[in-house]
Design goal:
There is one protein chain. It is globular and about 60 Å long. Strand 4 (91-95), helix 4 and strand 5 form a beta-alpha-beta unit. The protein is α/β, with parallel strands linked by helices and 294 residues long. The protein has nine helices and twelve strands. The chain folds into two domains: 5-154 and 193-221 and 259-274, NAD(P)-binding Rossmann-like Domain (Rossmann fold); 163-187 and 224-254 and 283-293, UDP-galactose 4-epimerase, domain 1, CATH 3.90.25. A four-stranded parallel β-sheet has the order 3-4-5-10, with helices on both faces. A two-stranded parallel sheet has the order 1-2. The protein has a two-stranded parallel sheet with strand order 6-9. Helix 1 (34-41) runs parallel beside helix 3 (65-85) and helix 5 runs parallel beside helix 7. InterPro entries: NAD(P)-bd_dom, NAD(P)-bd_dom_sf. This is NAD(P)-binding domain-containing protein. Residues 19-281 form the NAD(P)-binding domain.
């Protein structure tokens, strides 16, 4: 039997995980309050720690660099110091990002873990810091840390500040009124998309079978054009929807074409993505439709 404890910020809603609330224990905790973290994890005996708490929007990090850096770097530092203090033997997963790589030469594609890091947003800088901070705590404090650099993952329940749920949410709302305009940003970019449900399985395998101290890329290894993603979502709808470009939705820094070499992770853990992109997109728009009903 597996017991799961989830830490959640005191001011954050649990609506997104309502369907899980009876199956997990939720603890209110602010990762910027190091005393609170220590008090919450003291006298516990976790086997696995998945550190997912972070400010997660590259675009919004330009408007909120201080909040991004504080939450992502200092928040993780507080957690790791608390784990050192209680002499934790848990395996710990540190989540980086494909954004750590920044703009890369085409000769380096697909990206493996040896490609130099070149972060181009406050978010990406924070993720590099989290990545290397995790490595430092592995080296000097002997914490049992594994690091992952996930590429873009999508699916039901993702916040609408990200491109795919932003499209899906607008389409679902337009269906309610019989059609209209969908506002979009740059449709000419490409992304390595993976279903979040595949990614989460990868998170578990990283600690179950990953090598302590190592870093791994995780993604689909496939490129999808944003315009194709939008067209697939639109194909699930029967109302007339017009595409309207909005310059305000263009990202300040947009790595045009990067995709993942996940062979190191696959060799170590046996992981590979299984859910087709069409199912991911259909499930995403269905989730947005259900939100409007409920």
């Amino acid at each position: 039997k597996i017991q799961i404890t989830g830490f959640i910020h005191p001011k954050h809603s649990t609506d997104n995980i309502g369907f899980l609330k009876d199956r997990i224990k939720l603890v209110k905790c602010d990762i910027l309050d190091k005393h609170s973290i220590f008090n919450k994890i003291n006298n516990t005996d976790y086997d696995y720690v998945f550190h997912l708490a972070a400010f997660s929007s590259p675009t919004q990090s330009f408007q909120n660099p201080k909040i991004t850096l504080e939450n992502n770097i200092i928040g993780q530092l507080n957690l790791l110091e608390a784990l050192v203090k209680i002499k934790s033997k848990a395996k710990i997963l540190i989540i980086g990002s494909s954004d750590e790589y920044g703009e890369v030469n085409k000769s380096n594609l697909p990206l493996n873990e040896l490609v130099p890091l070149s972060p181009q947003s406050p978010y990406a800088v924070s993720k590099v810091a989290q990545d290397l901070l995790g490595y430092q705590f592995y080296l000097h404090h002997k914490l049992q840390i594994v690091r992952l650099r996930p590429f873009n993952h999508i699916g039901p329940r993702q916040a609408a500040i990200f491109v795919v749920p932003a499209f899906a949410s607008q389409i679902a709302k337009l269906e309610k009124i019989g059609g209209g305009d969908i506002n979009v940003g740059n449709l000419q970019t490409w992304r390595d998309f993976t279903d979040v449900r595949d990614i989460v399985k990868g998170y578990f395998l990283a600690l179950d079978k990953g090598k302590i101290g190592e870093v791994y890329n995780i993604g689909s290894g496939k490129l999808y054009k944003i315009s194709d993603i939008l067209n697939q979502l639109l194909s699930f709808s029967k109302v007339k929807i017009n595409i309207k470009k909005d310059k305000k939705l263009f990202r300040i820094s947009d790595n045009n074409r990067i995709y993942c070499d996940y062979s190191k992770f696959q060799k170590q853990t046996g992981w590979k993505p299984k859910i087709p992109i069409k199912k991911t997109l259909f499930d995403t728009i269905e989730y947005e439709r259900q939100l409007l009903i409920n």
